[in-house]
Give the backbone structure.
Amino acid sequence: MPTPAAPASSAESRILAAIRAIPTGCVASYGEIARRAGLARRARWVARILAGNPDPDLPWHRVVRADGRIAFAPGSRGFREQCDRLRREGVDVDVAKGRVRSRPAPVDVDAWLWGPAA
DNA sequence: CCCGTGACTCTAC
DNA sequence: CGTAGAGCCACGG
């Protein structure tokens, strides 16, 4: 066998790579990550992978819903940690709404990524 | 094999 | 800008 820590599948590893590719201070949606990994319509799968992801270095906090909302339940531990991590990176987060506040989503950008407020 | 579940998304109202 | 409903997909019982 190659390595005991080998990825479960190439698809999964592509998803993880897409998440790691999100620049600091930016966020991307589950669906966009899936799309980038060549797996359209697999947003829920991305979520499932994140839920079981053991890698502490993975920037999971940069992944949010398509509308910018935090996927965790408001007030939950994951919710607070994600808000906190994003804010530390300079992302403008509306904690009350549980949503990333940013400039209007650019439709023409190849990467559906929101930057920190220019 | 059917059914319920979930860190989702899109369309309608 | 907010809620409601249906669609979607992988997974476990």
